[in-house]
Design brief:
By secondary structure, the chain is an alpha/beta fold. It is built from 7 helices and 7 strands, in the order H-E-E-H-E-H-E-H-E-E-H-E-H-H.
Length: 239
C-alpha cells in the first residue's frame, strides 16, 4: 500500500513537469532559425507597370513572388499552374503576400484566357499580371541577381522572392549537409524554377515560410537580425 501511495504523487509530478521542462528546453532556441539570405538590395520599384485596370503595381511593403511569362503566357500555363498549386495556395491570405507576373502590353487577351484557367475554382485575389513595355520587362529582369537571361519571348521559368524592403531573397549557400561535408564548391540559389516541382514544393515553400517567420517576429519585437547563415558560410570556408 505504501509503495502505491508513493507512486501516485510521483507519477503526477512527472506528468506535470515533463511538459514544463520541454518548453524550457525549447525556449532558448526560440529565435534560433536561419533567416533567408539577402541576395541583392535596392531592387527597383515596378513604376512602369500597371495591372489590367490600369492601376500601379508595387513591390514596396509587399512580400512578392516575381515572375516573367513574356509573350506566350498561355503556352506556359504549366508554369503558372505549378506556382499556384505549390506556392500561392500555401501562402494566400498571409499579410502583404502577392504574386506578380510581368507580361508585355500586347498579350492582354492571352492573359485573360490564362486568368480564366487559374480562377477556375476561386478568384486569385493576391495574384496580379502586370503589363509593361518589352524594354521595361528586360530592365526589371536585369535588375535582379540572375543566372539565366530572358528568352526571345521575354519569359523564364524562374521566379524570384522580393521582400518588403525590395531586397531579393534566396540562399547564399544551397548545398546540403552531405555536399558541405564533402567540400563541394559553394553555390547559391537566387531563383526558383517553376518547372521543377521539387524545388517549389520543398526549397521555395521552406524559404517563404522562413521569410514570413522573420516578419512575424519583427512585428512582435522578437527578431534577432544576426545572420546565422552568413556565419555558417564563414565557418565552412575556414574548414
Amino acid at each position: 500500500m505504501k509503495m502505491s501511495n508513493l507512486k501516485n504523487p510521483f507519477v503526477l509530478i512527472v506528468l506535470f513537469f515533463l511538459p514544463v521542462l520541454f518548453l524550457l528546453f525549447l525556449y532558448p532556441s526560440k529565435h534560433n532559425y536561419k533567416t533567408l539570405d539577402i541576395i541583392k538590395k535596392d531592387i527597383p520599384e515596378l513604376s512602369n507597370f500597371v495591372n489590367k485596370n490600369g492601376e500601379s503595381v508595387q513591390l514596396e511593403n509587399k512580400l512578392t513572388v516575381l515572375g516573367f511569362l513574356g509573350k506566350t503566357p498561355v503556352e506556359d500555363a504549366i508554369l503558372a499552374l505549378n506556382l499556384k498549386e505549390l506556392v500561392y495556395d500555401k501562402f494566400r491570405g498571409f499579410k502583404r503576400f502577392q504574386i506578380v507576373i510581368l507580361v508585355p502590353e500586347a498579350v492582354k487577351s492571352q492573359v485573360e484566357l490564362l486568368e480564366k484557367e487559374l480562377n477556375q475554382y476561386e478568384f486569385l485575389e493576391y495574384w496580379t499580371f502586370a503589363f509593361g513595355s518589352d524594354d521595361a520587362i528586360l530592365k526589371a529582369h536585369q535588375s535582379l541577381k540572375i543566372s539565366t537571361v530572358l528568352d526571345t519571348n521575354l519569359r523564364t521559368s524562374e521566379v524570384f522572392i522580393i521582400d518588403k524592403e525590395r531586397q531579393q531573397r534566396g540562399r547564399l549557400d544551397d548545398r546540403d549537409k552531405d555536399q558541405i561535408k564533402n567540400k563541394v564548391a559553394l553555390y547559391g540559389l537566387s531563383s526558383y524554377d517553376c518547372l521543377e516541382v521539387s524545388i517549389l514544393k520543398n526549397k521555395m515553400s521552406e524559404d517563404m515560410r522562413v521569410l514570413f517567420t522573420e516578419y512575424r517576429q519583427k512585428r512582435k519585437g522578437n527578431f534577432n537580425s544576426t545572420s546565422r547563415r552568413a556565419d555558417d558560410l564563414k565557418g565552412n570556408e575556414k574548414n
